[in-house]
Amino acid sequence: xxxxxYLKVLFFALIISCVDRYVVPNDIxxxxxxxxxxxxxxxxxxxxxxxxxxxxxxxxxxxxxxxxRVFVADRxxxxxxxxxxxxxxxxxxxxxxxxxxxxxxxxxxIDVDIDKKMNVFFIDGSQRIFLWNQYWSDIAIAxxxxxxxxxxxxxxxxxxxxxxxxxxxxxxxxxxxNMVSVQMxxxxxxxxxxxxxxxxxxxxDTMNIDLDIFYQTDSSKFNAITAPSDKENxxxxxxxxxxxxxxxxxxxxxxxxxxLLELANGDTVWSFMGRFGSTVKGFGTGAGTVNGPxxxxxxxxxxxxxxxxxxxxxxxxxxxxxxxxxxVYTSGFQPGAxxxxxxxxxxxxxxxxxxxxxxxxxxxxxxxxxxxxxxxGDFFKKVGYGQDSLKILTEPVAATVDQNGVLYVCxxxxxxxxxxxxxxxLNEDIIQED
Length: 434
What we know:
Layout: E1 18-19, E2 22-23, E3 43-50, E4 59-64, E5 70-74, E6 79-83, E7 111-114, E8 119-123, E9 128-133, H1 134-139, E10 141-152, E11 158-162, H2 166-172, E12 177-185, H3 188-195, E13 198-202, H4 206-211, E14 222-226, E15 234-242, E16 247-263, E17 268-281, E18 293-298, E19 304-308, E20 315-321, E21 328-331, E22 349-354, E23 360-364, E24 369-373, E25 379-383, E26 396-401, E27 407-411, E28 416-422, E29 431-432
Antiparallel strand pairs: 1-2, 1-3, 2-29, 3-28, 4-5, 5-6, 7-8, 8-9, 9-13, 10-11, 10-12, 10-16, 14-15, 15-16, 16-17, 18-19, 19-20, 20-21, 22-23, 23-24, 24-25, 26-27, 27-28
């Protein structure tokens, strides 16, 4: 039986730099509490700020991979910039700089996320999703599938098909056919295209237009993307196309096998393309509906969180129910009962992030701060203020939280990444600078 091996990544975490005039030791313990408490005091800024000196120009989004590395979608640089948690740029990520599409046009990434297979997904505001795989880059692709023999399970009929054709894709993803043998070959052009950031999903493809019959898939405008940790073969995007039909929605994009790859170490892995799955939630004005979406995230249980500019509620959480023939998503927060649903808390809820304990961080680029809620949607604290309650941030547009509870915030106007942490997690063995 053929075995397909996937990347296993060990978690690691490292926090250094200084807070005001103090240095945080490398081995400081993470509190990792499921709920905030009265003794959590306030958020302190971790310095230095990552700015132009770190090569950052116009950060639009930020995400943290399982190995702790920080990925920044920098629209100004046409790049996904990668940092260690100490701010250093590791080697091996050159293909993510000065990114171009398949026709040679420069790409302006506006959102990025990483799944458990180390697939780095990013979008550019169009109907497309792009992909780069860190594991393939580290190991290198040696061969790609050229053809294969398939066996029809019911009739026991064999057929041989060349890779890349519509029949190939159909049989490769069918439950009625098994691949019984495959011919691998060295194809430099195909290998180079897969090693570079490449197109994963395009709403203009006939397959996706046919599957998404109620919407204008070819005109979608994706402005946020997230990859769930509980399911490995899908991503979610927000569609902010709008128009007369109010095409505001959250979409599930499924993985669709496209090629079999043999890596330089002998491992065999699948290459995937994206295929339209379903509209998870569509337009509306009530709790759990979509109206001008802006930010999107998913927690470890598969609950989706999003922000929007349309009526009436800026921040939402929807919970999936998979008990029926298809998933049904219902609102996890209710107006009048949960603080996070109070519209007057936000001027413009630009982005939303969820940590491993389901605490929620809402980025407001007009109020120039981040509002933090616990997993029940109760207000906890504001982030982005320094001495004398002066605002530190200029135009925050995105946030993420690492394994140690450090909050990273993209500031578009400053061209910077700011970092914050609760002060009660910094009060043990603090070393003063010389």
